[in-house]
């Protein structure tokens, strides 16, 4: 199911044309809001919002904590589009459906993608409530053939064999640390490696130990496919993981993680994440993908 479905360029274009006809906003920045972080969209000025169910070709979000709408508006002088709720492989969507919005954003003129997610910490130095700037990822589904770029390549979007060695923009990562210092939240922020697993179950202890051995700092069930597609079509990418739980690596641990706890940490840290992303967007230069962040 995951590898065979193909989406034509015309289908992406149809969704982009529909959105262009419905709103005057022409976004330069797209933000994907992870579990419990949908409030980012509420800060946009002059909003237009659309339920996913109304947009041609868009899949539906089925996860608690994901509102399922696209919100356009202005944020600190930049035109943005926010996804309140993303799509996951574990919901049964093919990966080309999961990443469908990214290529629509590209056709709308988006140059920079900001991805946020909720993730579990695998290292002692990352605590619940900390924010991890993603410097790199391990895309486990991708390593075994579940890749959104599987199938014929669409040369209008990007090359057949795109490099992923610098998919998280260094300039934006440096800018984020500067902003964190100014907002006095540098103490809860650090860079790290994110791993995507398929889900929807949380990791077994043996799996957690394996991830830890591989140098993974935080693990979640999203983000990598969107980043792969955004990088393929030439967007700058900046990613943040909100650490919502500790992943158990010992058989003696009695704590177990649940989705309600994840959402609760999202609510507690939402204000900090919002201020951080808002200020990064304010300071970011929009200059046609020349990769100069500041």
TrEMBL record:
- Return the EC number: 2.4.2.1
Which catalysed reactions does the entry list for this protein?
guanosine + phosphate = alpha-D-ribose 1-phosphate + guanine; inosine + phosphate = alpha-D-ribose 1-phosphate + hypoxanthine; 2'-deoxyinosine + phosphate = 2-deoxy-alpha-D-ribose 1-phosphate + hypoxanthine; 2'-deoxyguanosine + phosphate = 2-deoxy-alpha-D-ribose 1-phosphate + guanine
What residues bind phosphate, as annotated? Answer: 35, 66, 86-88, 118, 222
Pfam families from the xrefs? PNP_UDP_1
Keyword presence, Transferase: yes
Q: Biological process (GO) annotations?
A: purine ribonucleoside salvage
Q: Which keywords does this Swiss-Prot/TrEMBL entry list? A: Glycosyltransferase, Purine salvage, Transferase
Positions binding a purine D-ribonucleoside in this chain are 203, 245
Q: Which GO terms describe its cellular component?
A: cytoplasm
Q: Which GO terms describe its molecular function?
A: guanosine phosphorylase activity; purine-nucleoside phosphorylase activity
Identify the metabolic or biological route this protein is part of: Purine metabolism; purine nucleoside salvage
Domain Nucleoside phosphorylase stretches: 29-282
SUPFAM superfamilies assigned to the protein according to its UniProt record, in alphabetical order: Purine and uridine phosphorylases (SSF53167)
Q: What does this protein do?
A: Catalyzes the phosphorolytic breakdown of the N-glycosidic bond in the beta-(deoxy)ribonucleoside molecules, with the formation of the corresponding free purine bases and pentose-1-phosphate. Preferentially acts on 6-oxopurine nucleosides including inosine and guanosine.
Subunit structure of this chain's protein: Homotrimer.
**Which family is annotated?**
Belongs to the PNP/MTAP phosphorylase family.
Protein's recorded name: Purine nucleoside phosphorylase
Source species: Takifugu rubripes (Japanese pufferfish)
Q: Which gene encodes it?
A: pnp4a
